[in-house]
Amino acid sequence: MEKARAAAIALHGAQDGAEQQHRFLYAFSMVENAPWNAICRKVGFTLLGGIVFPTRQGGFLRCNDWRFDLFANSEE
Question: Which of 28, 44, 53, 64 has the greatest number of C-beta atoms within 10 Å?
């Protein structure tokens, strides 16, 4: 099964869950990771912008901040 399809199935399963305690699901992918960014876009995540995470080694990672609205297709 391709990764994008598997991600979409997982996201829709989370949307259908009986307990919807959280509205948003977040994903953080490195800016340079084009395949993962494409998957996020394809399955319906919204790109909020860039974010910088500090690493344990003292450096920094530039990541994209993606958000998926779990309630997008349900009544609030």
Answer: 64
